[in-house]
Specification:
Protein name: DUF6150 family protein
Strand order of the largest sheet: 1-4-3-6-2-5
Shape: globular
Helix content: under 10%
Number of helices: 0
Pfam families: Septknot
Radius of gyration: 12 Å
Number of strands: 7
InterPro entries: Septknot
Largest sheet: 6 strands, parallel, barrel
Structural class: mainly beta
Distance between the termini: 5 Å
Oligomer: single chain
Length: 92
């Protein structure tokens, strides 16, 4: 279950993430869910404002500083890792 908190501090983030507009550039295609119960695995994110509820704290940054590049997609079926990655399993 990927419950994501966006931290304003790079130092406290678990993972540095860059948002890209082209799917081909992304390591992970992410679908944003409207409820916590729909968040599943690394690719279906519920974004919370409560730090203590999150399974992962992310800091959004430029591509050059990112550990994972993501692209937001509109439906569940498209979400997932595009290729093997060292951060698989770290969001949930």
């Amino acid at each position: 279950m990927a419950i994501i908190f966006q931290t304003p501090s790079m130092g406290e983030a678990h993972i540095r993430v860059a948002i890209v507009s082209e799917r081909g550039q992304a390591d992970l295609l992410v679908h944003r869910t409207s409820s916590r119960g729909l968040a599943n695995g690394d690719a279906r994110w519920y974004i919370t404002r409560e730090k203590q509820d999150a399974t992962c704290w992310v800091f959004f940054t430029a591509i050059g500083m990112a550990q994972v590049k993501i692209c937001f997609v509109n439906n569940f079926g498209e979400a997932g890792w595009q290729k093997q990655h060292q951060y698989q399993g770290r969001f949930g």
